[in-house]
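Progress report, Aim 2. The chain analyzed during this reporting quarter is listed below.
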Amino acid sequence: MSTIAVVPVKRFRTSKQRLGDMMSAGTRRALTEAMIADVLIALRRSARVDGVVVVTGEPTAEALAHGHGADVVRDPDDAGHSEAALRGIAWALERGATRVLLVPGDCPALAAAEVDALLAGTPAGPEVVIVPDRHGTGTNALLLTPPDVIRPSFGPGSRERHEAAAGAAGASCRIAEPSSLVLDVDTAEDLAALGEVLAASTGGAANTRGLLKRLERRQWL
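Predicted structure tokens for the chain:
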């Protein structure tokens, strides 16, 4: 089974705006870059991921992708996470992928071992695996077999929409909650939760760890 990981990344000027009360635009940009780099490193280390493609209209994200051995699909319209995911799915299908893993670029604690565990086994038929966010109502990641089994619909309430779409497509659906994929970073509370997870663990997320330590020393957080 050939698996392509798709990482949609929006333009940095619009990224992490809900952190605006605690970070400058430059710091938000640096955090976004660090998190994407850590996600790409984890995916590269995964034994069950056969390829990674970053879908973006952001030149810096494109450079990060190339620097970490990922392909790039350009997203000039920057039409949103779901549309970017569809571009990545189309690219993966053209290259013969039999499933795709849609992964956000803001889960820097992502662990290659958990990715491999998520990808272990071969479903008997069409399948949708949903990784919810830590609140349980959104969707952080989707594992789709085949890649076009459903149309992704990210955003508030997306877990329920993806479950309904799987049912309508006649696909099996299951929920998976790998700890390193459940935690994305959009708000100050998310960032605090990430800090606690990283403080309680060793290894992984080297770029994000380093940035957060520098921010703490300079009292930017």
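The helical segments are 25-45, 59-67, 81-94, 112-119, 158-168, 179-182, 188-199, 206-217. Residues 22 and 63 are 27 Å apart (CA to CA). These observations will guide the mutagenesis work planned for the next reporting period.
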